Every structure is written in structure tokens, then in C-alpha cells.
Amino acid sequence: QVQLVESGGGSVQAGGSLRLSCVASGVTYRLGWFRQAPGKEREAVAVIYTGTVLINYADSVKGRFTISRDNAKNTLYLQMNSLKPEDTAMYYCAASRTLGGWWYEAARYNYWGQGTQVTVSS
Length: 122
Fold this sequence. Notes:
This protein is an all-beta fold. It has no helices and 11 strands.
């Protein structure tokens, strides 16, 4: 089975950086980061595909966030730079064993981590 464990969340000031990690055991074809702020819909932040160089980012984080993976450590990362208060949310690591649907559809992801809180203050 697939198990996901996130870490790296915390509180930072605007302009700061955080690096989220997700240890992902089991076989997956697609790994991604989603986030959800209070009162808002869950949104896809970034997704990386297995076996390709394709990576997708939400427009709001392009140029600031970088998604990557280390297969030797079975770990997914999200490097977040130039953080803004609007980035404040619960961040979730997610995995899919299929490639159906759009990359940003949360319903297509079969496995989810417990979430890690990111808070950015002004």
C-alpha cells in the first residue's frame, strides 16, 4: 500500500522560505502537493510525474515554488520561496497510481498525507 507522511510546515514571515517533505512508500505514478485555506476549496499547487519530466504548477506559485523528488529516499519535496500571506494553508501530499483526469483534480488522487500547516505572517 501507499503511505504518505509530510513534514516541514511552520510559521514564517512574508518573504521567507520553507521546504516541505513527504516520505512516500509504495508505487505511484503521480505525486503532488495540494493546499486548502479556511473557507476555500482545496487547490493543486504542484504535481510531478513518474517516468517523465512533466511538472505542473498553479499559476499563483510559478517562479516561487519548486517541486522535486528523491527516488533514493522515496521523498517528495516542495521548496517554497518568497512566501506570501496568501500562501497560508494546510498543505497535503497526495499520490495517484493512475494518470487519468486532469493534474489538478484532487479526486483523482488515491492517497493523502495527514497535512502540514504553513502560516505566513505580514
